[in-house]
């Protein structure tokens, strides 16, 4: 369970860092903009802005403290949660809750600054004007990398799907679902990158050279980001499947830790790096020629400085004013679906999938029955039932020696039970049906050494040592 805890804590840590970096980025003026509100340059040095910065920092600190306090059950889950499914639900609600409500300080300050701007008439630039650099637009298609490169992650993503179909069974259905979802995520990344690349170019300056450099840098870096992200994810899933279906034998712990760190870093930090580089390049180029800078006051199109709604703009995706991401134009059908509907569909599907796949396994119990006809032994444990003939058993023992597994290729592993396919230094490949009492002592369990079987051993016990002994006696009697 140490591996599981590390993965969950890593998710919490990445979420905290992402929210911290996003909130912190808003407390510093960017060119002529503060809290996603367009302002004259001289206003940015006013006492009002300094007071807003102070108040915003105080609100953000409260959010950070609440996040850390409510993360304690996630960091030390088994002091509080005895049920792993409930723990995962809590962690998801924690992540999603702060992703949606952790940005409240920014919304409050955006409204406050916008209200003060209207009262003092701090308007700058032209309103409801769209600039277009036709010279730069002609070179639009040469800016991002070719879409054909996305064939690489798509082809890699198809391999796990083929493997899961080839090895399909009732207990392996989760692999098929994950393979389909993985391919869907890759295609979604390709689709988003394609839509972003088709968006109209942003006109930063009257100097076409500056517009070309900034637009090309952004489109190329964003398209490369999505491509690398898709390739990394598809490769990680492929390696997992090669391990799960025993095509390769690699230490699972090291692979999962490395892959989690790599993927999380790319997702959480990759886009932050890109947006920061574009912003720095924008300030560097436009600061050299202030007279050529184009300023448009389109605050009316930004709801709380986060949601973009402009019926006069055909762009489906635009650069966000807040944080290090992109957002959607909700005035378009596509943008409204992506901004308001897609996340709810994905979240609903995720929770439904968890309920379907995890709850039955979480509360399932194992039972063994003996038949007169072949197969002689049947172990029921949805969805990991197993049938065995007495002829497949070479020897049988009962023990309470401490046992550990270095790899779970399929099944359930918690502090109270292990069910499924495992690998052990002592027993090799084994089919396991083990219950633990949560104490330091190891309960009694039956070890069946197998022959002519894909497993080396079958390990079984019940929740009660006396019942385990009864099963052992009956097995021994039938073998004799």
From TrEMBL:
- Name of this chain's protein: Bacterial Pleckstrin homology domain-containing protein
Q: Which domain of life is it from?
A: Bacteria
User: TM segments?
Assistant: 6-23, 63-81, 87-109, 149-167, 173-193, 224-244, 250-274, 345-364
Q: What is the lineage of its organism?
A: Bacteria, Bacillati, Bacillota, Clostridia, Peptostreptococcales
Question: Key word Transmembrane helix present in the record?
Answer: yes
Keyword line: Membrane, Transmembrane, Transmembrane helix
């Amino acid at each position: 369970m140490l591996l599981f805890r590390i993965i969950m804590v890593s998710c919490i840590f990445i979420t905290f860092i992402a929210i911290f970096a996003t909130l912190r980025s808003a407390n510093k003026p960017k060119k002529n903009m503060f809290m996603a509100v367009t302002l004259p340059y001289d206003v940015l040095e006013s006492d009002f802005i300094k007071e807003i910065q102070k108040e915003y920092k105080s609100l953000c600190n409260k959010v950070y403290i609440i996040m850390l306090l409510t993360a304690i059950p996630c960091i030390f889950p088994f002091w509080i949660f005895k049920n792993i499914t409930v723990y995962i639900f809590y962690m998801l609600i924690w992540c999603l809750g702060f992703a949606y409500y952790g940005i409240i300080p920014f919304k409050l300050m955006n409204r406050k600054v916008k209200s003060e701007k209207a009262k003092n008439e701090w308007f700058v630039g032209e309103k409801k004007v769209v600039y277009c650099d036709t010279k730069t637009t002609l070179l639009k298609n040469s800016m991002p990398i070719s879409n054909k490169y996305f064939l690489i992650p798509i082809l890699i993503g198809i391999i796990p799907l083929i493997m899961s179909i080839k090895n399909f069974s009732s207990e392996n259905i989760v692999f098929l679902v994950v393979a389909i979802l993985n391919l869907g995520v890759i295609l979604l990344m390709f689709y988003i990158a394609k839509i972003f690349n088709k968006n109209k170019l942003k006109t930063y300056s009257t100097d076409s050279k500056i517009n070309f450099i900034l637009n090309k840098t952004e489109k190329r870096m964003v398209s490369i980001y999505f491509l690398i992200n898709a390739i990394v994810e598809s490769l990680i899933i492929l390696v997992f499947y090669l391990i799960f279906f025993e095509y390769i034998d690699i230490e699972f712990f090291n692979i999962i830790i490395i892959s989690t760190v790599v993927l999380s870093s790319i997702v959480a930090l990759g886009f932050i790096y890109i947006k920061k580089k574009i912003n720095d390049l924008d300030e560097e180029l436009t600061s050299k020629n202030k007279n050529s800078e184009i300023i448009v006051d389109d605050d009316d199109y930004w709801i709380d400085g986060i949601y973009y709604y402009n019926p006069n703009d055909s762009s489906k995706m635009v650069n966000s004013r807040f944080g290090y991401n992109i957002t959607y134009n909700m005035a378009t059908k596509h943008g409204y679906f992506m901004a308001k509907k897609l996340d709810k569909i994905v979240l609903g599907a995720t929770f439904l999938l968890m309920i379907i796949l995890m709850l039955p396994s979480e509360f399932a119990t194992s039972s063994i029955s003996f038949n007169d006809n072949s197969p002689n032994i049947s172990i029921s444990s949805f969805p990991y039932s197993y049938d065995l003939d007495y002829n497949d058993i070479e020897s049988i023992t009962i023990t309470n020696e401490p046992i550990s597994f270095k790899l779970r290729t399929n099944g359930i592993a918690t502090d109270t039970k292990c069910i499924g396919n495992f690998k052990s230094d002592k027993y090799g490949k084994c089919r396991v049906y083990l219950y633990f009492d949560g104490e330091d002592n190891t309960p009694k369990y039956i070890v069946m050494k197998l022959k002519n079987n894909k497993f080396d051993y079958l390990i079984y016990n019940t929740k009660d040592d006396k019942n385990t002994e009864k099963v052992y006696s009956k097995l021994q009697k039938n073998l004799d």
